[in-house]
Amino acid sequence: MQIRNFSIIAHIDHGKSTLSDRLLMRVGAITEREFVEQILDDMDLERERGITIKASAVTVFYDHKGEPFMLNFIDTPGHVDFHYEVQKALQACEGAILVVDATQGVQAQTVANAYAAVEAGLEIIPVINKIDLPSARPVEVAEEIEQVLGYKAEDCILVSAKTGQGIDDLISKLCDRLPPPKGKPDAPARALIFDSLYDDYRGVIVYVRVVDGELHKGQKIRLMGTERDYQIADLGKRMPRPKQVDRIGTGEVGFLVASIKDLHDVRVGDTVTDGLKPAPHALPGYRPIQQMVFCDFYPGGKTQYEELRDAMDRLQLNDSSFTFAPESSDALGFGFRCGFLGLLHMEIIQERLEREAAVDVVQTAPTVTYEILMTDGSARRIDAPSDLPDLSQVAEIREPYITMNMIVPADSVGALMKLCEDRRGTYKKTEYIGAARLILQYEMPLAEVIYDFYDRLKSATRGYGTMDYELSGFRVGDLVKTDILVNGDRVDALSVIVHRSKAEQRGRKLLRRLKEEISRHLFVIPLQAAIGGKIIARETIKSVGKNVTAKCYGGDVTRKRKLLEKQKEGKKRMKRVGSVDIPQEAFMAILETED
């Protein structure tokens, strides 16, 4: 039997999941009656948002020219925050279908995913989808693909995942053009772990791509990264529903269950080998993940610290691009410092924790990683403003810069260049895709991009602009740490590192937002922004007024004065011992300091 392994890659909303659904129907893996949209997106969040968050691997069978073929394919996410999922999927394949929308043409993530597939050495088949739409322009889009990506326009396959047009031609091309997997069936077993998840009854379920040898039921296996031995209790494949099998051969994809209870034994990118006859070398695995955004998660409501830690352990098993480490705060107690690939990734993780593990999370505002050069010549990285050392020991603060590619309509260039310059961007180059669209490249500080740049880009381009970025390194900046004091106490979780030119403006806006979010107490609450020992901005939350003389009818005025003096003394004492209740919204106010 011939085997073909491939991924489906594309920009957001170009039709990857619909194409996967149509392929499953065409090869008979599901019937018309069983067909539902996004059948591979089995998370509620994926269905609600209409996006793919986790890559899904499926095995189907197809007869081509009288010969049986096993097709293993992976539907991948399109958003830039989940690019790591795409990279993992590409390393488990020999080919890729690059899907481009016939109405929108080549977009930023189309280019990024195509380059990632080329870097992984895959055979790429360009596909133009949605040709059934009245606004489709397949000829122009094919020319764009040739101009930007270098694939011949005549090699593009025209399909409609919605109606099924062109699907047979696509499957034939997959069978004919994609190379079979390379591997040694007689060598000791080696399988790459590309995903995993935790099941309360079966332990860790490990998704693998067998590179050499084979895995079979009852086999003793070794996880080469942790040197732990287990016995395979169950093997299976998604077709698209899980189905038990007795063996997974060379070049095939499937999952194994081996009663693994310790979550830390399984690592994505590790190699599974034969326990009795282990392979001499592990597979190369994956490049280390570089988190872009960090924030703190603290247990809220009735959730305990241990519950939150267990929930995060299980989620990290299913999403290796999410990391966490213990953290503590005077204002919020014990929690975790968490790393993410972007703001959408952070939002998805918080929602998954609250839904799947039923825990309450209090989240602080996100920050990026900074590189600090100390006066003694050593360098260190911090991912929270509270970790910044004493400024007398700091020689310079370096911030992360990114190279950003934006694909935008030509008539939006002026507004977009102004937006980039306001965010301290440096112009690099312009490249025309067609008469009406171009690629604009800028270098910018990551801190200026993560909050609301994408929304501003969409507004400036009337929804037609797209962006993709990658980290280009750290550069020295005139940066300062702005501390926020609530009732005289410094709240670390509200501190921000900003460019000196924007520190006062940012501090004033932040205090105005905090004043709206923090409710009035029985005493006056001063809110202050400070750089070092210098106060640069102040707002005051007035106390709740209580008329203590309401029941004092008539008589000498000294009776009223005595009551008012007593109230004043009580407020002084309360201010001294009273603590301010800071709601979750106040920590997120840092994100919303724009007018």
Describe the 3D structure:
- The protein is α+β, with helices and mostly antiparallel strands and 595 residues long.
- The chain has 5 domains: 2-177, 3-Layer(aba) Sandwich (Rossmann fold), CATH 3.40.50; 190-274, Translation factors (Elongation Factor Tu (Ef-tu), domain 3); 293-363, Alpha-Beta Plaits (2-Layer Sandwich), CATH 3.30.70; 371-476, Alpha-Beta Plaits, CATH 3.30.70.240; 480-592, Alpha-Beta Plaits (2-Layer Sandwich), CATH 3.30.70.
- The protein has 13 helices and 31 strands.
- It has an 8-stranded antiparallel β-sheet, covered by helices on one side. A 6-stranded mixed β-sheet has the order 2-3-1-4-5-6, sandwiched between helices.
- A hairpin with a 4-residue loop joins strand 10 and strand 11 (228-231).
- Helix 7 (305-318) crosses helix 8.
- The longest helix is centred in the C-terminal third of the chain and has 21 residues, at 557-577.
Tag the structure with descriptive keywords.
about 600 residues, alpha+beta, Rossmann fold, Elongation Factor Tu (Ef-tu), domain 3, Alpha-Beta Plaits, 5 domains, 8-stranded antiparallel sheet, 13 helices
Oligomer: single chain
Spatial strand arrangement across the major sheet: 11-10-16-7-8-15-12-13
Q: Helix count, per DSSP?
A: 13
| Shape, per Cα inertia axes | globular
Poorly predicted runs are: none
CATH level-four homologous superfamily name of the largest domain: P-loop containing nucleotide triphosphate hydrolases
Tell me the helix content: 25-40%
What's the architecture of the largest domain in CATH terms?
Answer: 3-Layer(aba) Sandwich
- Biggest sheet architecture: 8 strands, antiparallel
**What's the number of domains?**
5
Structural class: alpha+beta
CATH class category label of the largest domain: Alpha Beta
Q: Taking Cα atoms only, what radius of gyration do you get, to the nearest Å?
A: 28 Å
